[in-house]
Design goal:
The complex is a heterodimer of chains A (about 190) and B (about 775).
Chain A (H helix, E strand, L loop, with lengths): L3 H12 L3 H23 L2 H18 L9 H27 L17 H6 L3 H7 L3 H11 L5 H8 L3 H20 L10
Helix pairs in contact in A: 1-2, 2-3, 2-4, 2-7, 3-4, 6-9, 7-9, 8-9
Chain B lengths: L1 H20 L10 H9 L3 H8 L7 H14 L11 H11 L35 H9 L5 H10 L10 H19 L4 H15 L26 E3 L4 E3 L14 E3 L3 E6 L4 E8 L2 E9 L5 E9 L2 E8 L8 E8 L7 E9 L1 E8 L2 E9 L16 E2 L2 E2 L5 E3 L7 E9 L4 E9 L4 E4 L3 E10 L4 E12 L6 E9 L8 E4 L2 E9 L5 E8 L5 E8 L4 E8 L2 E7 L2 E8 L7 E9 L1 E8 L3 E9 L6 E10 L7 E8 L2 E4 H4 L5 E3 L4 E8 L13 H11 L7 H6 L7 E10 L3 E11 L6 H4 E6 L2 E6 L3 E6 L5 E5 L1
Parallel strand pairs in B: 15-17
Antiparallel strand pairs in B: 1-2, 3-4, 4-5, 5-6, 7-8, 8-9, 9-10, 11-12, 12-16, 13-14, 16-17, 18-19, 19-20, 20-21, 22-23, 23-24, 24-25, 26-27, 27-28, 28-29, 30-31, 31-32, 32-33, 34-36, 35-36, 36-37, 37-38, 39-40, 40-41, 41-42
Classes of the chains: A mainly alpha (about 190), B alpha+beta (about 775).
Chain lengths: ~190, ~775
């Protein structure tokens, strides 16, 4: 987003249905989209799918976006909505299989085929996200990667703005403590 | 105060940038090229249906956001505009030390005398030089005889024997710096470098397990032991700790006659005398230090011990200070001593008037200079730790050196010191020993293994002595997952099985950390959320969508037996013994429709018959979504005289319709409870007493009654701000028949524990 004017121009063109312009915008934000999805869902495969799904929806629906300056906030909210439903799906799936033997439980959140490979490469930051609650994860990813302000996060999550701020601050402190201790969980509470 | 705010802001900025810049491998299918292809090949039907996707925010919704933006004058976003190359560069810098990158520029000569005799125990894991490392490190327990043989063979080794642990420390950090360097190479180069490094260093920790397992959950740090101290006159509740007899520091302390409060905001110590609910402030002492801020304190007889984290010239080049005040005159505390050791405060403990301080010293692997010990050896009182007291775990991957000291508080002197590379995963201190659990690291394939290494160090009368190591698969949830009892060490662990599913296990070790018995493959695909060992029985909670509480009988250490398990919704993050036959669980209720862990939940288990655990009562604290005890066990108050317990909790009404049309949301907060359209969910606690909460932080006290279940005794509002600091800074203390609610730096309010009527208040 170094050049917002250029970005808005691209969004305008994308609104006319120009796939290439849309891809250029996408190029500027896809890493943030992916990280948001990955840290929110904690499952690389689902993150991949949800980003792809989000982008296609956004491309088709961009005509409905009136204010081009809100593009980033808008697309992250699409992503967030999708993640929300996926997480609800996890929960539902868990509920459905709860009485089943544990053997049938794989693939719910993290039992994917390539999980082993992914977990190997899991970054310290990814680990740090795991110490957060689902809600905190969402606030942090939307704020940092989505670059949404507290009002926008609040709107997306149905929370109060001040709640979002304090939760965000608290989550960052948790992560900082975790990262600062090199992944140490019982670190000091200053 | 401004400084503190700025500091907070600065730290937040650094954390944000670190998180923002973190690099993740993006799947190929998401590359802009591939996406463009997908966009272009979308069918008209798909296009139409996606255009109406329910996940796209409605235009009206976006318009409201836009309105808000205009009002607040915000330009939107966090303004984190970092150019990608800079991000990539930063990623690696932050990658592992993650912000704890030390810049030690001071060139130091080695000072002080370093012991010339090699400590047998600590050098037992020594690799002598690069050529023998690979052999040596495959067996960390290799005994010392072989060691001395090997060092005898090396005539050309210029380092004297006593410096071996120094050399190991250097080699360890040097290897880590090489590891970082490899991130910068292209794919081809990486392959080459990895092979070369593997040949060269071959620190193979455990090459069979090659993946990095899940990290532990943080919110469950809490848990505790019944500790009710005794003074001459009255019973009082002491700080809730992990192990009875091993004190832990806190911001608020009592000795039964006085209450000591460290006000971290203004950096003052405050001493109050308390008597039958009457409170009097005796003194207020400025403890502000130029280059350090306080954290916790201890009271030992007439000494007040104050732990402070120094930040030095460079934020990361920090030291921990232990400051002792003589408080024989409570009205005029006098400064006595200061002790200093390098690193970031990890934790402290006190046993029989001896303070044990643990700090993490991080080294900048890029600033390594073999001749400059300051770049890889930590100091205590500005002297380097002697080589004989330095342990290097080569099969751990860490730039973190755990510095341990013991201080006799009354004599005012250091007793002993020790340092160990590693030890940063889980720390547990029993009345006899200190245990560190660390993830093994394989230098061969550069990954954490799923196995953890236990290091046992005894600390009798303040003298540290390295004992032995052991290992177990997986990782510990927190220090409640590990417990020493009757000479046996027991632990519950979450690990990955060979089929990559998460499992849980229980291990019993003898005093040499040899495995006596184990139970494996418990609760597949779940992870341990909390644990509590009560004598011969281990209780632990694993979580999937319900919360199975396991009871395991360990009375025969060689034959552990699973007695029972009970499933309930949500999970308990903190377990506390309640009398002899009950177990209190504090945790979260999980909302199944959204997936958020929604509100705080109290559960009482009847464990009078461990083979038949019964959920006796559960109280859902609707709209209370945070509790101090879940972040910090020290914040939990338990009075074993009458079975009451307390903690701070914050209330926020989620059902509030926070209307976009309104000018100012903040004002609305206060009145939201009444305006709420759907107050169905607030019911449960309202049934108890017709009280409607307004948002904010409350100090809650509960009792438990066989007949009535949980009974709310007190809901004292500490703040009308949700997530106020009072959530963290408040402690309840019972002395005799009175409860004192201490809000650090603000006030103390006393209540009669019969009626819970307020008796006194003192600022």
């Amino acid at each position: 987003m170094e050049n917002n004017v250029n970005m808005y121009e691209l969004v305008n063109r994308a609104k006319q249905g120009d796939a290439h312009s849309f891809a250029l915008i996408y190029e500027q934000i896809y890493q943030d989209l992916y990280k948001t999805a990955l840290y929110t869902l904690r499952n690389p495969e689902d993150a991949e799918n949800v980003v792809s799904d989000t982008v296609l929806d956004a491309y088709a629906g961009i005509g409905g976006l009136r204010d081009v300056t809100l593009f980033r906030s808008w697309i992250f909210r699409i992503l967030s909505n999708k993640c929300k439903r996926i997480i609800a799906g996890y929960i539902q799936e868990r509920a459905n299989v709860s009485e089943e033997p544990v053997e049938n439980f794989e693939g719910v959140a993290d039992g994917k085929k390539d999980f082993t490979e992914q977990v190997q490469n899991k970054s310290l930051i990814a680990h740090a996200f795991e110490i957060l609650s689902d809600e905190e994860r969402k606030i942090v990813t939307l704020t940092i990667y989505g670059e949404l302000n507290s009002d926008e996060v609040a709107a997306e999550m149905g929370l109060n703005r001040n709640t979002v701020r304090s939760k965000y601050s608290r989550a960052l402190a948790k992560m900082r403590n975790y990262i600062g201790n090199g992944g140490d969980m019982y670190g000091q509470q200053r | 105060m401004d400084n503190r705010d700025n500091m907070e802001k600065m730290m937040n900025d650094v954390t944000e940038k670190t998180i923002k810049a973190n690099y993740e491998q993006i799947p190929e299918s998401l590359s802009p090229e591939n996406i463009e292809q997908k966009l272009a090949s979308m069918t008209q039907g798909e296009y139409q249906s996606r255009m109406n996707s329910r996940d796209i925010p409605a235009p009206e919704e976006m318009a409201k956001v836009q309105e808000k933006k205009m009002k607040s004058g915000s330009t939107g976003g966090k303004g984190l505009k970092i150019v990608l190359p800079v991000i990539l560069a930063a990623v690696f810098v932050f990658a592992l030390g993650a912000g704890i990158i030390l810049a030690i520029n001071k060139s130091r000569e080695r000072t002080g005398d370093v012991s010339t005799t090699s400590d047998v125990d600590t050098s037992s894991k020594s690799g002598k030089d690069d050529k023998t490392d690979s052999d040596k490190d495959k067996d960390p327990d290799e005994n010392t005889d072989k060691d001395s043989d090997k060092s005898g063979d090396k005539d050309d080794d210029k380092e004297s024997e006593d410096e071996d642990s120094y050399k190991q420390a250097f080699d360890l950090l040097n290897n880590i710096s090489k590891r970082y360097d490899e991130y910068y190479y292209t794919d081809d180069d990486v392959v080459y470098e990895v092979e070369e490094a593997a040949d060269e260093d071959a620190f193979s920790g455990d090459s069979t397990a090659t993946y990095k397992a899940d990290s532990t959950y943080s919110s469950t740090e809490a848990s505790s032991t019944l500790t009710t101290g005794n003074s001459d006159e009255v019973n009082f509740t002491d700080t809730n700790v992990r192990t009875e007899g091993v004190s832990e520091g806190d911001i608020i302390k009592t000795d039964g006659k006085y209450i000591y409060d460290y006000d971290s905001y203004t950096e003052h110590l405050e001493i109050y005398s308390v008597d039958d609910g009457q409170i009097e402030k005796l003194s207020r002492v400025n403890v502000l230090m130029d280059d350090a801020y306080g954290s916790k304190m201890y009271i030992y007889n007439d000494s007040l011990v104050f732990i402070a984290q120094g930040y030095g010239e460079d934020w990361y080049d920090s030291s921990v200070y232990v400051v002792v005040y003589d408080i024989s005159d409570r009205e005029n505390p006098e400064y006595k001593d200061t002790f200093k050791q390098q690193g970031n405060l990890n934790t402290t403990r006190m046993v029989d008037g001896i303070l044990y301080t643990f700090s993490n010293k991080y080294f900048d692997v890029y600033a390594l200079d073999k001749k400059d010990y300051g770049t890889y050896i930590p100091t205590v009182s500005d002297d380097f730790i002697p080589a004989s007291n330095l342990i290097v775990n080569k099969d751990c991957y860490t730039e973190n050196c755990m510095v341990m000291t013991s201080i006799d508080i009354e004599k005012g002197e250091f007793i002993d010191e020790m340092a160990m590379f590693g030890g940063s995963s889980t720390f547990y201190m029993s009345t006899e020993s200190i245990y560190f659990a660390d993830r093994y690291y394989s230098w061969y394939d550069y990954s954490y293994s799923d196995d953890s290494k236990l290091t046992k160090i005894s600390y009798k009368d303040g003298e540290f002595e390295y004992q032995c190591t052991g290992d177990f698969p997986g990782y510990l949830n927190d220090d409640y997952s590990i417990d020493e009892y009757n000479g046996y060490l027991r632990l519950v662990t979450t690990y990955y099985g060979s089929d990559w599913t998460r499992k849980n296990g229980l291990y019993v070790y003898d005093e040499n950390l040899e495995t006596v018995s184990r139970v494996l493959s418990l609760a597949e695909n779940e992870e341990i959320k909390s644990a509590r060992f009560m004598g011969d029985i281990a209780y632990f909670v694993t979580f999937r969508n319900t919360d199975p509480l396991f009871a395991v009988d360990l009375s025969d250490p060689e034959k552990p037996e699973i007695l029972d398990y009970l499933k309930i919704p949500g999970f308990s993050a903190y377990l506390h013994p309640y009398g002899d036959d009950k177990l209190l669980g504090i945790g979260y209720d999980a909302d199944e429709s959204t997936g958020w862990t929604s509100c705080i939940k109290l559960t009482m288990f009847d464990i009078s018959d461990p083979t038949d655990i019964v959920e006796e009562d559960t109280l859902i604290m609707d709209n209370f979504d945070g509790a101090s005890v879940l972040d910090n066990r020290n914040a939990f108050m338990f009075n074993n005289e009458d079975g009451t317990f307390g903690f701070a909790a914050d209330y926020y009404n989620y059902d509030y319709d926070w209307g976009w049309e309104e000018e100012d949301i903040d004002e609305e907060d206060e009145e939201d409870v009444e305006d709420s359209d759907e107050d169905v969910e607030v019911e449960e606690i309202e049934e108890e007493d017709e009280y409607e909460y307004v948002d904010g932080v409350y100090y809650m006290v509960f009792d438990y009654d066989e007949e009535e279940g949980f009974v709310e005794k007190l809901d004292y509002q500490l703040s009308d701000m949700y997530y106020d600091m009072s959530l963290y800074n408040t402690r309840g203390i019972v002395i005799g028949d009175y409860l004192y609610v201490v809000v650090s730096g603000e006030k103390i309010v006393s209540f009669d524990t019969e009626s819970y009527e307020q008796v006194d208040e003192c600022d």
